[in-house]
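no rush on this but wanted to send it before i forget. what follows is a protein written twice so to speak, once as letters and once as structure tokens for the fold. mainly i need to know what kind of three dimensional shape the backbone takes. thanks a lot i owe you, the record is right below.
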Amino acid sequence: MHWAKPEYLNLLWALPVLAAVFVWAFRRRRKRVELLVGPSLAPRMTREFSREKAVLRTVLIAGFFCFAILAAARPQWGTRLETVHRKGVDILVALDTSHSMNAEDVAPNRLMKARGAIRRLVRRSEGDRIGLITFSGSAAVDCPLTLDHGAVELFLDISDTGRIPEPGTSLASAIETATGAFIDRERKYKVLVLFTDGEDLEGQVDRAVREAKEAAVIIYAVGVGTPQGMPIPIRDSGGNIVEYRKDPEGRVVISRLDERSLAGMTSETGGRYFRATTPEGEIDSLYNDISSLEKKEFESGLFQNYEDRFQYPLALALLFLFAALWISERRRPGASW
């Protein structure tokens, strides 16, 4: 058995208090009668009162409260298979996990900022199928398109720089992997959102964008970082910065946000470019833009493990209530003689 509202079960602790109140009320009524007419006359004055009926009525009232509380807690059992229909689009999120995402020109660093923005997008995208790709020198589908947004967040939580063993940054690889992950026969409903600093060390982006456009994939990009850039820190196991990444000539590498390339790439496919900000208002604007696209209907068979059975305790509660109202505390005529 499962309880949909288990917090209501805490009210059952009030039943002993209710019983104590009834016992106190009985004793108080008897004492008031004795004070009024004296102990010797009290039994004669109360002979029409039936203690047994009063106790039974008290038990019925307590039963009403007990089963009413159980009904409010909504007991559930039994299984049922439902077919759920949703409307939305397919959204593949590509997260840059190259070492440049460790730069700290946005707090706490580019990668953590991107992960927070993606989490906000996932939670806003109710009804859409979402998948997750991570990329650096190559790309991999961490989570395929799914309506289970919790699974997407689970994979997002374990994404980190160095997850893809091949070093570098290849936007082309991310775009090609995403294009292949969509259903080929569809000519719409396909959105790719890149979260990256825009630095591309491998090239061939133009060809990948053309292929994505031919496959009707709309590319959006969220730039993470600043145009001024920052060095890329290297930390030890304790989280302390030991040095900064350098080029082959020994010069410290300054990683900069390449907004121009990202804006040109997205406009080519009909998408838009946004820069990541602290309030994350760009994610709301991004999703509003995506939600204006034509949506398709997803059909997903889901097991609903429990069905409501509150009707049974509710019926018992009403039965106890009507019985308590029907029973009188007076003795039957002639019973006192």
In short: The first strand starts at residue 2 and ends at 3. The chain has ten helices and 15 strands. The radius of gyration is 34 Å.
